[in-house]
Amino acid sequence: MCGILAVLGCSDDSRAKRVRVLELSRRLKHRGPDWSGLHQHGDCFLAHQRLAIVDPASGDQPLFNEDKSVIVTVNGEIYNHEELRRQLPNHQFRTGSDCDVIAHLYEEHGEDFVDMLDGIFSFVLLDTRDNSFIVARDAIGVTSLYIGWGLDGSVWISSEMKGLNDDCEHFECFPPGHLYSSKERGFRRWYNPPWFSEAIPSAPYDPLALRRAFEQAVIKRLMTDVPFGVLLSGGLDSSLVASITSRYLANTKAAEQWGSKLHSFCVGLEGSPDLKAAKEVADYLGTVHHEFHFTVQDGIDAIEDVIYHIETYDVTTIRASTPMFLMSRKIKSLGVKWVITGEGSDEIFGGYLYFHKAPNKEEFHRETCRKIKALHQYDCLRANKSTFAWGLEARVPFLDKAFIDAAMNIDPEYKMIKRDEGRIEKWILRRAFDDEEHPYLPKHILYRQKEQFSDGVGYSWIDGLKAHAAKHVTDRMMLNAGNIYPHNTPITKEAYYYRMIFERFFPQNSARLTVPGGASVACSTAKAVEWDAAWSGNLDPSGRAALGVHISAYDKQNNLANKGVEIEKIIPMDAAPLGVTIQG
Fold first, then answer.
1. What are the residue numbers of the active site?
2. Among 32, 33, 163, 315, which residue has the fewest nearby CB atoms (within 10 Å)?
3. pTM for the full model?
4. Mean pLDDT score, 556-562
């Protein structure tokens, strides 16, 4: 993995331009502290900052074909690279890097090879024979990527917005699952799974098939030549990832190099739900567990750095990114270079608590489709940039292409939450790993209620953020919010506070347009807010906003360490979504 930066067709091959590209590339150095490289061909520049994970000795970039006529700079992990190498018997590979297959696949298949790649990636490929280029991003957008256009006719590509925002007339997020071709001067979608059309699937639920698909997704991600660990919050998703990793690690090449003892990591405020649950899971699995504590003030002090690195003003993302940002620094200091984590499950299985109110299976399924399509703007962005801020890579098995296909082909009737039948959120995933003979997890962990990461690290974290923002944003400022920020106007003081910081780092109109907006309750899309009329008055992304659903929902009795701020002033109690309760 690495940070990539490319400037293509800039009509300027001067030394000054090369120096500028190098300067901008250094803005991405946190993503790849192990090696820096820059290759120039005429008026095209390909730069990278490498985090060496597979073949750290010889896998430096850019990568080439045999005669160096095809040049590639790539940020990614190609999990099926050994299989692809076997399909290219007439090609000679210069390195052992998993990404070395890309240039050779292009030689064999032209621009139509991207769907052959099983992994996460963003890459720029330059064909010097006709000076054409292609750019592609992985299916879901696990890796971050931006594209921009200069007034001189140049096309800019960067892993992060800060690599191009000062030099482009216009820039935007590079869409996941797409390829940009210089020959066509536009995008085309290469990733077209059946679920993308949002047609309602009808396949029956097979718990063992779902289990096998996820186990394979985890196992293939244990490809490494460096130390790694697992992020363990104690919730269902990360606990399953840790359990499967622990179960199968001994038979992998990684275990031969680094041993079969798995290291796990958790972060939270003192006494938070995640710390307690993670410790219990770690003890059950026998991992070497590392527990990191932070205070509300630690998090508040890091907010500006977090916004600079994750490049968003979205409230939910900033709340959850801050603990992850603090934890990643600690993990990297221990010599670990990548972690495996549990993002994506809630989008696939309807795990957010607002799914309790889905009116029917059709709406349930369409909402999961909408959530997966938007992941690159939320959880993928958080997981990628919060970790890479410290040169740490995150791998996400729930977003494996084959696993998504398997899970999204199941009749959504099986995913529906039915309290009278004992089916809570993500029931089909829990049931798939409910093995009496060889249990993966203790029952009460396997059936633990969903905690959003920003909640699970400690409920007073969000309350403290709101109180801090209220000290910096006045009522008068909020009255003028629509005039100051007409696009995605902040409706809370917390959102206004984050927006001020973001605009200071990224003042361009293109920058503010990269951040999504719209109404949300407990992380829903704007469309799902329509499921309950009462939700329109209760728009907060915390899982605790799902009043009557979350067992620690916002109320007077459960107001934890709120520093004297009444929850009713933040979220009116009479606006609570009604009629949803947890049984038992």
1. 2
2. 33
3. 0.91
4. 37
- The token pair that represents 397 in the structure block: 């098995």
Known binding site: residues? 98, 231, 267
Enumerate the β-bridge partners of residue 36. Answer: 49
Give the pLDDT score at 542: 56
The Cα 141–Cα 22 span in angstroms is 26
CA distances (Å), 368 to each of 350, 375, 406, 414, in order?
A: 6, 11, 14, 13
Contacts of 83 (CB under 8 A, 6+ apart): none
* Per-residue DSSP letter, 196: G
> Domain extents for the chain?
3-192, 203-295+306-462
Q: What are the binding residues for ATP? A: 231, 267
Domain 203-295+306-462: CATH superfamily, name plus number: HUPs (3.40.50.620)
- CB 7 within 8 Å of CB 44: yes
Helices marked H in 27-134 — which ranges? 81-86, 101-109
Predicted confidence (pLDDT) per residue in 13-44, tens digit = 788 888 999 999 999 999 988 778 889 999 99
CATH number for the segment(s) 3-192 = 3.60.20.10
Q: What is the pLDDT of residues 369-427, one digit of tens each?
A: 999 999 999 999 999 999 999 999 999 999 999 999 999 999 999 999 998 898 999 99
